[in-house]
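notes to self, project folder thing:

trying the whole complex as one job this time. last attempt i did each chain seperately and stitching them together was a nightmare. two parts in total, labels are on each line so i dont mix them up again. if this works i'll redo the older ones the same way
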Amino acid sequence: MSVDSTVQNSHEAFLTARDARLAVRAGWLDVVGDALEQHRNDLVDVARRETHLPEKRLHGELTRTVFQLRLLGEEVREGTFLGATIDHQDPNWGMGPRPDIRRVNVPVGVVAVFGASNFPFAFSVAGGDTASALAAGCSVVHKIHGGHERLGVLTAEVVGSALAIAGAPPNLLSVVTGREAGIGLVEHPLVKAVGFTGSVHGGRALFDRAVSRPEPIPFFGELGSINPAIITEAAWKNRPDVIADGFISSLTLGVGQFCTKPGLLFVHSSVVEEIKQALGARLDSSNLSDKMLNERIHSGFLASRGDVARLTGVETVAPGNDNDPPAPAVFATSGKNAAKTSAVLETEMFGPAAVVIDYDDHDELVGLIHALPGQLTGTIHSEENEDIRSLVQALGSRCGRLLRNGWPTGVTVSYAQTHGGPYPATTASGSTSVGTSAIERFVRPVSYQDFDDHELPESLRESNPLNVRRRVDGEWS
Amino acid sequence: MSVDSTVQNSHEAFLTARDARLAVRAGWLDVVGDALEQHRNDLVDVARRETHLPEKRLHGELTRTVFQLRLLGEEVREGTFLGATIDHQDPNWGMGPRPDIRRVNVPVGVVAVFGASNFPFAFSVAGGDTASALAAGCSVVHKIHGGHERLGVLTAEVVGSALAIAGAPPNLLSVVTGREAGIGLVEHPLVKAVGFTGSVHGGRALFDRAVSRPEPIPFFGELGSINPAIITEAAWKNRPDVIADGFISSLTLGVGQFCTKPGLLFVHSSVVEEIKQALGARLDSSNLSDKMLNERIHSGFLASRGDVARLTGVETVAPGNDNDPPAPAVFATSGKNAAKTSAVLETEMFGPAAVVIDYDDHDELVGLIHALPGQLTGTIHSEENEDIRSLVQALGSRCGRLLRNGWPTGVTVSYAQTHGGPYPATTASGSTSVGTSAIERFVRPVSYQDFDDHELPESLRESNPLNVRRRVDGEWS
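result (full assembly):
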């Protein structure tokens, strides 16, 4: 089927879906989750063959994906994402008489979603972007990632059958494959928003198309991140083994193929030699067992690792190798050099490699952090009695999520999560692609002025038949 | 001073302002409002000479502007815009153990604001975009509109002195003039968001620059709107005079120079002749007394009016004239013709002119509404017993605010307001530039994972020292 027909059909589905009651819409999300559970073994099996990801990881990811669908379903039932707000008529309003005016969020329309290479479930056909768009009341056309097309098609079949049985409108979730189809989606007039997870290069190219349309549309892209982590002198002195082990573990998890992999380690110059030694020793015996996702990602990693290795003033602590999986690599340089050689701070190596950068004092470190491109995460390891306020503030100005004494891989799906950040971490720093707030990306507000009660959407009627949380005359219910 | 220096200084102001306590930040908004009140007569005097707007209107607009500042100040004190959300550690979280994670909205940085020609106070130096950016904790560099530069400079002086006395950081609000400076603002790396009110042509050009930067930034542009209004057959039959008078009044208010001026009147074909007659008769005796804002707007209006008058199948009901102010003009055409000649539905005439379009049935009307570009407002006049659901839904799919039995000019500043809509009404349909939700445009979320209580922003500490509304473990306080 052509992209145009697919989008047209998706639009038809949207016209029905937008009117579904909240409980019905939430039920669709549950049904998708149930269907994934029911076909768990088949799905994991296909995923394993296409991605080289280990079975345990895939099962965990599927669990996460199902949980995410159900949590968003609960959020739909709860209804706060509607942002229902009522201002009653007020003849004494300070700027002059106020009419009766009421606002509710409505779904934007067809959403195009681009799946990620490294999360065949959680950021793919039935992943977070799809779940939050469906939760918002949108329909979805998903561009299956080329790295796991068979899985994408199977997932779409599983989900599609389940939705059909549940009585959802046909084509509420559909899929396309191939680069041209992806471009066609972004440029289609009936597509009203895009969710994307992938590389800076590919994401920016699609972003540019989305904003160059006659009608520009919002492009929620999660493009890349290097994820700085800071180790204070005191932290290292007090718990060198915990920190070194934790870092190596986070660096090598999933062969380093996470957008939240810690890729820069800022350490105090008084301990940098110790740290390099500790990391080098651990990497000598580090043995990764899973191949990388695919050959393209493997060769891309080797290329970016080579770029970093060849930068002026960059020393190799652990060289890694060219095998698949490659042995983990660690490089090192001084903060002074990184300040001059900006590629040290700007090159994402998507795989098991990181750069240790030593600093002399907080001022230098703050300067380096401010020189970083936008990041999904920023981490600090410090002791309780240390004043880390300036460091936390600097990290906060460049990152969407800050961690203390932990590691950034592992992104919980919850109410308070932010998986986002300044560009290029995302193309929309006001948003998150993980957690319940992800729904907000796919709605827009509509206000109703002076309508009779029965003409209003149910969420705005005086009696609050949907029993959703509302703000009324400035007060929260 | 160069644009670069202005932005650098503004950034310094931001670095201080972002840490100010909510009550202090709110106090700055109050102080700006107080200063405007104190200099009311001087400001109105200068505005009168630069804009030709009548004294009464300018006083009303200044009242609105001061009210807006104070309402946003209250919103800052209330603190809900922080979106404070707390998820406590939960070993039994459905997808696996959840860390302690807490989110708060932080200001984005320096905001560039472009003033509007037609609102020298409410959408200018101390207008809604400035107020909401300051409320968010940002600093502002305002590009003064060329139509009222003296007023802009005077307002900046008044506001600047008041903020200095109140102890706000220097350069919290600064101004620049001239087209090149405006471009320089949008392209400056330290500018992190743009608020714009103006034409589609100028706004799109700046939007294109904002999204083409190495680091694209959000561009909140309110670009234009034609504002369709529907009159059902029954509505016209029951109250022709009220409707005709109301329409002419809204059409000619402020010489038609409102982005919410009703520019398209959809009427049932059985009453179109009556309606044209009623409007024509009223316009014969209509006498506008105030000149248009400036010569450029006057000539632009005459040009767009001429474009519409010359469209195929468009009939002139009341021709208007070329005076300043021009006499109001009304054109008419059939829905069939409008469906073929899309310029009828797409040409904004910024001044006192509108087009009457007759339709035969709801299906035809719904088709015409769907063919409209995005709109700030959509209006429907109908009787209580009529089923208008399909019409309201169609309008809702193209508009940010819907009105029943009223007229769209007059935009109250309140909690439930949406002054926004699909492109080109705005470049960011998820947002509003009027009302308390306008603050949300200038913040982004940051999440804190596993921080000690005393290291967290106050809004996220366990004891809730700021006493802001929060969501805790999914429950709303």
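what i see at first glance: The mean pLDDT of chain B is 97.
need to look closer tmrw
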